[in-house]
Amino acid sequence: MATKKILIVPGDGIGQEVTAAGKKVLDKIAAKFGHTFQYDEALIGHAAIEATGQALPDVSLEKMRASDAVLFGAVGHPKYDNDPSAKVRPEQGLLKMRKELGLYANLRPIKLFDELLEASSIKPEILKGADILFFRELTGDIYFGEKGRKNNGDTAFDIAEYSRYEVERIARKAFEAARGRRKKLCSVDKANVLETSRLWRETVQQVAKEYPDVELEHQFVDSMAMLLIKDPRRYDVVVTANLFGDILTDEASQIAGSMGMLASASIGDGTGVYEPIHGSAHDITGKGIANPLASILSAALLLDISFGLKAEAAAIINAVDQVLKAGYRTKDIANATTPANMILNTEAMGQEVVNRL
Ligand code: NAD
Q1: What is the C-alpha R_g of the chain?
Q2: Distance of alpha carbon 309 from alpha carbon 318, whole angstroms
Q3: How far is the CA of 14 from the centre of ligand 1 (A)?
Q4: 284 Cβ inside 6 Å of ligand 1
Q5: What fold, for 1-106+269-357?
Q6: pTM of the entire predicted model
Q7: Cα separation of 351 and 357, whole Å?
Q8: Which residue ranges make up each domain of the chain?
Q9: pLDDT value at residue 206
């Protein structure tokens, strides 16, 4: 029986709606397995800017550091998307959280529930059995380098930077994970063009010497974008830089049927943060139709990775599987043949998972 402090950080838009479902599932797990989860809440993103003027106030950061794990929603608001001149932006909260908590590895398991084979835009015969674990580097690259304007604002630059130790630590995490799976690692870069990628490849090859039992392949990011949907079953663990990982994992979300199905874990040396890969989805905010399963599956990752509660995590994944087998869908994973009474709103979908637990 464990006693743990979980910080709920809903953020903006559908982040609020889906983390509420994730928390309900955690509550049910605590009751069923006899654990005590103590919750607190903190602000980030637009919600935090409105309340404090900062995208990640110090008090939120302190609460994150003091908790055993964070269940996070999403940040973003239409106000900023169309105003590139805004100085304080919701995404700054996200980047600061990752940097301050040292969350250098973002794990994104991409696995299709069999019941959703038809929900993907990729042919079932290509998809069936695909099971990929992405490791996206999270605290380096073009997102964190120097950025600015010159020539009277007519020229802009973002500097991409990587240091050897940053590549080493994520490569090691990816090799370790591959060891526990099908022992295949694909490292994705653009070493034919970018110097950061050449350092990336050189370093991954160096680390590979410690893992002779893991088969390593390299792919250029452009060809990987194609191979991922042409032959997804070929991949086991994939490791890549921040920018490439951002794009490839959104593409890979189609393997899992919808953005609303994909969970992620951001880990480093301290508190881990667990979140859906999707954003705040302004287009559906407030309609109650967001798919909560990515947040619920993020709660499962939280239990597994931060607390080592593997049976509890498996129980959640099994409950999600049962709900999908029973035919329940949210709008994003429904298709033309789904009966109207089987299409659930966010709350009802969360409740179905709780019922199965
Ligand atoms: P998005 O992920 O919010 O939405 C993309 C599309 O997927 C939308 O059509 C949306 O309705 C749909 N979708 C996403 N999650 C869903 C769910 N759970 N259920 C059903 N449908 C879902 O990306 P976007 O529209 O490009 O960005 C919206 C905002 O989110 C922007 O402000 C952006 O900056 C922010 N954003 C935040 C994060 C984050 O906090 N981690 C990530 C990506 C984007």
Answers
A1: 20
A2: 14
A3: 8
A4: yes
A5: Isopropylmalate Dehydrogenase (3.40.718)
A6: 0.90
A7: 10
A8: 1-106+269-357, 131-254
A9: 98
